[in-house]
Amino acid sequence: xxxxxxxxxxxxxxxxxxxxxxxxxxxxxxxxxxxxxxxxxxxxxxxxxxxxxxxxxxxxxxxxxxxxxxxxxxxxxxxxxxxxxxxxxxxxxxxxxxxxxxxxxxxxxxxxxxxxxxxxxxxxxxxxxxxxxxxxxxxxxxxxxxxxxxxxxxxxxxxxxxxxxxxxxxxxxxxxxxxxxxxxxxxxxxxxxx
Length: 194
Description:
Blueprint: H1 2-19, E1 25-29, H2 31-42, E2 49-53, H3 60-67, E3 73-74, H4 84-92, E4 99-100, H5 102-117, E5 126-132, H6 140-149, E6 154-160, H7 173-186
């Protein structure tokens, strides 16, 4: 995960050198949400608004990978979205992972340990957590626990009834985009160049 976070920082520096200072809004989904949350942990002096959608802090997949010796772990595509048309697209998409390696899930578990142990470094951030209430891949209860532990004044958790893991692909995804738009309008950017 550190490599992904460092890649984002390299990209930010490149944009800054070309365009001058720009606001950073980091939106990550699923494992990308974990990367988005790791960025302000690793670079606490960079002002950023973080949107973590369906972050994977804990799941039956991770629990199975950490406890058992079996590898890889199968993923049920129906758990990604309620929309059957979307599930059919996932089945046909060669880039969609149908199995996740045990090693990747152990890395996720390690990164989550870093997030939980470094949560006090996230106090200055601005965070929006988005989660489907029917998500079977990522535990909403564990996301809520992390959210409640985060002693940050500028945080918000929005959950979506009858949505699974891929909240951006659900039929009512406009609700997700509206929540993001509202939160962005509610949070200010202080514009202090790093």
